[in-house]
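A sample follows:
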Amino acid sequence: MKNRRNYYRILQVQPDAPTEIIRASYRTLMRELKKHPDLGGSTWDAEVLNEAYETLSDPERRAAYDEDLFLRYTKQTGAYGKQPITPVFCPICKRPLSRKAKPGELCATCQTPLQSEDPPSAGQSRSRSIARIKKSEQIRYYSAWPGKPEQGRMIDFSPKGMRFICEEKLAAQTVLKISSSLFEASGTVTNSSEEIYDGKKCYAVGICFLAVRFEDSRGTFFSTSA
């Protein structure tokens, strides 16, 4: 049977707590709150605390645990009527966040822009308020973390999305972390079609941004006056 324990709750820390906080909470529970068997605590409680600490204090084990937590959370339905395990996950590394992301906030693990508002529903208009701007520029994208970035070239972009060309066909709904000199973004693949570019076969990929942080919006899409 798969382990269903919530190690964050066991150690009484938030899901995005840094390792220093996890270590401090573990020591407090073991010593000051006397969970250690030598101080009067039960062996079972100490074993569970040790299991939680050993997992969350190790970056690789924590990443694997967060991935499992993400899968468990996304499979839940509203039938239980309970508070979700965590409200937000990074779309790339699956690191949980204990609260709704702030506008422009980056994931502490992989530096991916986090979605700070609810995604548009299927019934909402997908029309663009600002036309896409043609732009040819090298980009890097990740489909998983950690991993090696793949290379692509931007075709055009807007505040809501972009298109780029690359050598691989990306499946619809694949979530990417995208980096360029203009912005950092997380986005979902909406379409991918085969094209010929400079005499070579490639794929044109459409992206709908989940979250984006522009290096400088002034002069890109907006203008200001004194």
